[in-house]
Amino acid sequence: MAKSGQAHKTCDFQVNVSGFPIRRSAAVRLTGLVRNATLDDSWPWDVQMQVENGKVAVFHYVVRDADAAETAPPVDSSRDRGEPLAIMVGRGGLIAGVESALRGKAAGERFDVRVAPEDGYGVRDEAAVQRVPKKFFAAPDRLRPGQMTTLSTRDGDRPVTVLKVGMSVVDVDVNHPLAGKTLAFEIEMVDVRDPTPDELSHGHAHGADGHAGH
Questions:
Q1: Which of 50, 91, 189, 200 is deepest in the core (most CB within 10 A)?
Q2: Which of 150, 145, 171 is nearest to 160 (CA)?
Q3: Listing from the earlier edge strand, what are the strands of the sheet with 169-173?
């Protein structure tokens, strides 16, 4: 209870008292439970920030091809890199299926999500083959059919798969390597926080603590 002379706190979020979900206000009036009570910092609040637009979500993930054999290795894992992924939600830095699943989650939660191609890396376009001059590749003489590499474009580096290597050109599949695949994610929430001023200015998260360099 508030001590004499303390300012009353105003609370506008959902809590649970004696098993009943209620909405607290500065003066709590619940017949048979609490009458005219004021709350101070000693009240056992357990309210965690949840993922929503503008928040930074920090999480570990393991992603697998949902249609691959159970013994197949993961497609990607943040744990293999030793640090979680940090994303500013609502800024387009994450595939739609995962971003949607993150919303409303809080630190400590673990969950699985299955992402269809339409909400992942897109439906595969079998006609998406291009013949590209070798000069657009970092090490063209080392390219081999079936190899994944990056192609330099005006919009930045784009992942491609090498189909054929010629004397002066390279045939590539410009579909994302995961296009057309249904993906199974295992996610563990590490933190949900407000972005730093620098992150807001730059429009993306700067690592788990908000202070990672570029």
A1: 189
A2: 150
A3: 129-133, 169-173, 156-165, 148-153
